[in-house]
Amino acid sequence: QIRLRCQKGIPPSLRGRAWQYLSGSKVKLEQNIGKFDELDLLPGDPKWLDVIERDLHRQFPFHEMFVSRGGHGQQDLFRVLKAYTLYRPEEGYCQAQAPIAAVLLMHMPAEQAFWCLVQICEKYLPGYYSEKLEAIQLDGQILFSLLHKVSPVAYKHLSKQKIDPILYMTEWFMCAFSRTLPWSSVLRVWDMFFCEGVKIIFRVGLVLLKHTLGSSDKLKSCQGQYETMERLRALSPKIMQETFLVQEV
């Protein structure tokens, strides 16, 4: 029942709370009362602080929460990302964490968003944000072999053009599509992602590849590597539309 409810879309008024329960971050917070405040008070490593500072204004710049420099949204985003670098110093900060944290902050206060981010980095997408990006490379290969089953035409085309999955799927997967899809689709994908895990991210990737490169008709305008990459960067709005995409997933 919960899975079906998440597939239909969680009501906006409940979404923030539902994400915390589904991800297990609610329990994590209860097990670590005061931990976020403790991290929040620490100065943090200057090498990360500079990079985080530079990234703040790039996240959803037109959203009322993040529109003003030094506004409460950007301040909270800084606090959450800084706290994560102190919580996992061996991992530090990765740029793709900023849009993830920003989406969370639109739905919940900073402390809850922090523990939700911890769950995404550790439970849902482990290894994605570590320095060598090994997990993302491995998942790129898995996506590619799944594409062979789902859309042999797209698979063959990408193989022929020698386009490595890491070239088109890195931002998709690491940002959980928050920088790729229209906002209404992002929320629906995240509802399912929190309920069912990373397989949802794979499915969305497969749907996009199949409907962008999956027929000889579509490949007419993608003769070379450059044209194919451009097509994957500028996906058709129709396939990213909430109703179409969710049904295909």
From TrEMBL:
<dbReference type="GO" id="GO:0031267">
    <property type="term" value="F:small GTPase binding"/>
</dbReference>
<dbReference type="Pfam" id="PF00566">
    <property type="entry name" value="RabGAP-TBC"/>
</dbReference>
<feature type="domain" description="Rab-GAP TBC">
    <location>
        <begin position="9"/>
        <end position="197"/>
    </location>
</feature>
<dbReference type="InterPro" id="IPR035969">
    <property type="entry name" value="Rab-GAP_TBC_sf"/>
</dbReference>
<dbReference type="InterPro" id="IPR000195">
    <property type="entry name" value="Rab-GAP-TBC_dom"/>
</dbReference>
<protein>
    <submittedName>
        <fullName>TBC1 domain family member 10A</fullName>
    </submittedName>
</protein>
<dbReference type="GO" id="GO:0005096">
    <property type="term" value="F:GTPase activator activity"/>
</dbReference>
<dbReference type="InterPro" id="IPR050302">
    <property type="entry name" value="Rab_GAP_TBC_domain"/>
</dbReference>
